[in-house]
Amino acid sequence: MDGYQISPTYDGADVVVVNTCGFIDSARDESLGAIGEAMNANGRVIVTGCLGVQADLIREAHPDVLAVTGPQQYEQVVAAVHESAPIDEAHNPFTDLLPPQGIKLTPRHYAYLKISEGCNHKCTFCIIPSMRGRLVSRHAGEILREAEQLVSSGVRELLVISQDTSAYGVDLKYSGDFWRDRLVTSNLKGLAEGLAELGVWVRLHYVYPYPHVDQIIPLMAERKLLPYLDIPFQHGSAKILKLMKRPAAAENTLARIKAWREICPDLTLRSTFIVGFPGETEEDFQQLLDFAGEAELDRVGCFRYSDVDGARANALPDAVPEEVKREREQRFMEFQAEISRGKLQGKVGTRQEVLIDSVDEQGAIGRSWADAPEIDGLVYVTDGQDLRPGDWVNVEIDEADEYDLSGRLVG
Fold first, then answer.
1. Helices 140-152 and 188-195, interaxial angle, to 10°?
2. What distance, in Å, lies between the first and last C-alpha atoms of the chain?
3. What is the 3-state secondary structure (H, E, C) of 104-115?
4. DSSP assigned state of 156
5. pLDDT tens-digit readout, 89-108
6. Are 194 and 140 in contact (CB under 8 A)?
7. What's the mean pLDDT when you consider all of the chain?
8. Do residues 110 and 366 touch, judged by C-beta distance below 8 A?
9. Model confidence pLDDT, tens digit, residues 24-35
10. Is residue 407 within 8 Å of 382, Cβ to Cβ?
11. Alpha-carbon dihedral sign for residues 315, 316, 317, 318
């Protein structure tokens, strides 16, 4: 794109672009480490993303980076690439224009589809609104046209992302937009119905359990959308959720999950939780375990709370000692692992539709509709040596652990 090719290795790259996160201290440290790795391996590094707003911090740790840009600064990144690694060929503005969403870096068969930027919430542990601003939604027609282009180029899975997918369109007052010569409402249901027409997997990430999310569950039951929701619940204690100032904290989440599963019994739910938030007592933690036990979520991640520069939670009293955070994280993940193991064991003997991601002499590796790339489990196809990335196949599952499945081709 734009006259450049993507290199799979540091050695083959004229310049390395490192996309960073500055959401929590551990993510900041990981980003600085990634910059250091790129500097050691290649030496010609451009830094972008959320941590880019702290340019002084980056240059203090890595003074020789070529350029530092912030989040959403696509044009500045491309300008830095042009300056650092100019191309010899004449640039053709009619064939090489960079799209406003940036360069696609994922494999050909799946792509992330960003529907909005920013967030209107004021969670006490989060600084995203100060880094990315308030919610700004893209019009539905624009999103659907981009999705069509991706599908026509070979994409078979669209991963819908934003900071708050369920709030999509609120800033647009859910106005209408034209696509395929008809009016489409710029809200979650209208957008989902449009995406469902494209004949590919559509996966929703970062959805809060608002009541209007109920409207898209029937689309999942009809397989117009993948029966999969990524919902950042963060905790199970009403007291801690209040301290976090989480949206939808007052909703009866367990009742909503039960109602969703009645409509779509094989709905997959993934979530993330924070342990050790200031003020979290053993009783609060037990409420989290109780919530996890009743919700029986399919995929779960857990993070120990850590202070973030600029977050209001830093000033909350009753900080939890680090050793207690680690112990609770371990207990929580061991508890959840048993739930996940049981759910995956229930899939042994079933037939699963799988999207293939990679192939080697050992077989193929793919994902079922219950697995998002990079964050969920895998399906190992032991006789898939002749498959290709992007293939859809049916696999009969014969083995499972708490994370992954294994099976053989059928049909």
1. 20
2. 38
3. CCCCCCEEEEEC
4. -
5. 444 443 343 444 455 556 78
6. yes
7. 89
8. no
9. 667 778 888 999
10. yes
11. negative
The most confident of 70-74, 115-119, 196-200, by mean pLDDT: 196-200
pTM above 0.85? no
**Which stretches does DSSP call E strand in 13-141?**
16-20, 45-49, 67-68, 110-114, 116-117, 136-137
Q: Are strands 363-368 and 299-304 parallel, antiparallel or unpaired?
A: unpaired
Judged on CB neighbours under 10 Å (0-12, 13-18, 19+), 271 is buried
Specify the DSSP class assigned to residue 377.
Answer: -
Q: How many CB atoms lie within 10 A of CB 208?
A: 18
**Residue 394 β-bridge partners:** 353, 410
Q: Report how far residue 397's alpha carbon sits from residue 353's, in angstroms, rounded to the nearest whole number.
A: 10
Q: Which two structure tokens, joined as six digits, stand for 210?
A: 């608002």
Instruction: Specify the residue for token string 């109780």.
Output: 290
Q: Where are the extended beta strands (E) located within 96-248?
A: 110-114, 116-117, 136-137, 157-161, 176-179, 182-185, 201-204, 228-230
Specify whether the CB–CB gap between 52 and 132 falls below 8 A: no
pLDDT in tens, 212-241: 999 999 999 999 999 999 999 999 999 999
Nearest to 79 by CA among 90, 89, 67: 67
